[in-house]
Amino acid sequence: MNNQKSNRNNPIKQDKTDNKKPRFNIYWIYAIIALAFIFINFLSPSGSPEEINMADFKNNMLSKGDVEKVIVVNKETVEVYIKPSKIGTGRYIDNTSGGFFKQQKPNFLFKIGSVESFEKQMAEAQEGIPETEKTPIVYETRENHIGNIIMYILPIVIIVGIWILIMRRMSGANSAGGQIFNIGKSKAKLFDKDNNVKIDFSHVAGLDEAKVEIKEIVDFLKNPKKYTDLGGKIPKGVLLVGPPGTGKTLLAKAVAGEAHVPFFSLSGSDFVEMFVGVGASRVRDLFRTAKEKSPCIIFIDEIDAIGRARGRNPNMGANDERENTLNQLLTEMDGFESNSGVIILAATNRADILDRALLRAGRFDRQIHVELPDLNGRNEIFKVHMKPLRLAGDVDVEFLAKQTPGFSGADIANVCNEAALIAARKNKKKVERQDFLDAVDRIVGGLEKRSKVISPQEKKVIAFHEAGHATVSWMLEHANPLIKVTIIPRGQALGAAWYLPEERQLSTKEQVFHEMCSIMGGRAAEKLVFDSVSTGALNDLERVTKQAYALVAYFGMSEKLGNLSFYDSTGQSDFSFVKPFSEKTAELIDKEVKMIVDKAYNTALKVLDENREGLEQLANKLLEKEVIFTDDLEQIFGPRPKSESEEQTVDSM
């Protein structure tokens, strides 16, 4: 009764059980063939005649009158039949029975060279014997019908079998060959009530503003009358824009889990194929299927693979397959035919290169910016990813959120996972605070390489280099205060310094300049102490040069150049061969950049010269302990005014 009731309540399950049929299996054919061979072998007479030579036949059988008859088969084989009266006397074995049927079989056989020679020898052996008592010779021509059938049919069966196997493999949905027959079909994966997603908005943290806008789409699909009664229309497309790892795809998964409508998921690269017209065909097939299941959602991840602005293709003038795919997508989203009930959800981290026709109202009506999480957002993300971990009592979520500025949601998930792995490596029962700090260091700076061979002189240079960074950042007012310095190699860096920058949206010229001075502190310390410089400042020089060019060419902070900015937010300059300024302006930019970098270097050199004694104490302590913290700097240089926010970043040598 219980089973019948459950089947009535679940008609889909009942229908599946009623229509369940035994599936065809190729192994049944193998079994039938094997049984046929066994049956044929069982019916065939058992025992095979003994092979002899002509001399034995003449001397031991024919001369003694034991042979009943001989049969010459196909002019090459002679079958010898012994008289029944001679069988059983001990000289010959009974060979007449076999299988289900009784039949006489030859007792012996031998090969002959020619029929004429055999007849001559038989005549010589039976010379003087009456004709009535001579052994008769019978000639037969036999054909192996079964062998002939097998010889002709077996190759055909093998070829047909191989062809069927290849066709079945090629027609498989997940096979590469199946694409030949379904080349124009969409590759979108469908998630519906039978194949639902387990992720909802509770798994998404730190994206409160984005969730507010995306929840409205879900609410419209659940309660459309609430909006249509007022004459409103749901947006046709929503574009999620943001840096990698900020949770765009996770947000789309949450929509799939919350909306409870058919959800098609695919990547932008799924439309691209080497064959002409395939991308447009897949777009048509996708929207045709979506209209049949409307209302529904289509999610296109990394839409920039097909949505790149037309005319930016390096193969200028060519009939680009991507542009044809984009044209079809534009038509399907908002063309002559109405496309009601289908909502397009897309994600990209390169919105600046998308085609303007794709971003206009009526196609992607909304652009939701998913940015890197702030302090509160990181706090919430840490709480989500810490739920499955067994935490010790000293783990402070707010402290960890402060130590990870600039981290995305994916980075924070990686921190939590690395902390658990580090704790397990140390055979701990719970994940402690130090494990999280080690995980942050591991992700930001790389894995410790204590086994790397460094000479004492190189180690001393590294110590003074990192001490120079620490000293300048501690003494300058607007520089980021330091919390940790190490000369233990990590990743490709021979030493590293962690800072606590203020989490600010705007930076003044003085703040940027002091940061540049602290970055140049390593090179200045090498020059001051050793009167020479090393190649260890490569990363520092690269960062300072980029910051100086940004000050001059982008932010308009140069006195000689004035309030000009050559920054192009549209990305058009990436495809231009001409700079947006003259050669004279380029020379002026280069001079201003060099002046700013030299000024930052001289300022760092001056600060270190004024604090030479503290610099040497700090470097010696680094050589002794390999890792120093804020307390060590405070003992040497005295207290430093704290910043409004203490958060951590890294400066690699």
**Strand residue percentage:** 5-15%
The best one-word shape is elongated
- Reading off the top of the CATH hierarchy, the class of the largest domain is best stated as Mainly Alpha
Kindly state the mean pLDDT as a whole number? Answer: 79
> From the helix content, strand content and strand pairing, which structural class follows?
alpha/beta
Name the poorly predicted regions: 1-21, 173-177, 643-653
The CATH topology of the largest domain turns out to be Methane Monooxygenase Hydroxylase, Chain G, domain 1
Number of domains: 6
Strand order of the largest sheet: 6-8-9-10-7-11
Can you identify the CATH superfamily of the largest domain?
Peptidase M41
The CATH architecture of the largest domain would be Up-down Bundle
- Strands, count: 15
Helix proportion range: 40-55%
Biggest β-sheet strands, sense, barrel: 6 strands, mixed
In DSSP terms (H or I, runs of 4 or more residues), the helix count works out at 25
Question: What's the structural blueprint in terms of helices and strands?
Answer:
Layout: H1 2-9, H2 11-18, H3 26-43, E1 50-51, H4 54-62, E2 67-73, E3 77-82, E4 108-111, H5 115-125, E5 137-140, H6 145-170, H7 178-181, E6 189-191, H8 208-222, H9 224-228, E7 237-241, H10 248-259, E8 263-267, H11 278-292, E9 296-301, H12 304-307, H13 321-334, E10 342-348, H14 356-359, E11 366-369, H15 375-386, H16 397-402, H17 409-425, H18 433-445, H19 456-475, E12 482-486, E13 496-499, H20 509-519, H21 521-530, H22 538-554, H23 583-610, H24 612-625, E14 627-629, H25 630-637, E15 649-652
Parallel strand pairs: 1-4, 2-5, 7-10, 7-11, 8-9, 9-10
Antiparallel strand pairs: 2-3, 3-4, 6-8, 12-13, 12-14, 13-15
Helix pairs in contact: 8-10, 11-13, 15-17, 17-18, 19-20, 19-21, 19-24, 20-22, 20-23, 21-23, 22-23
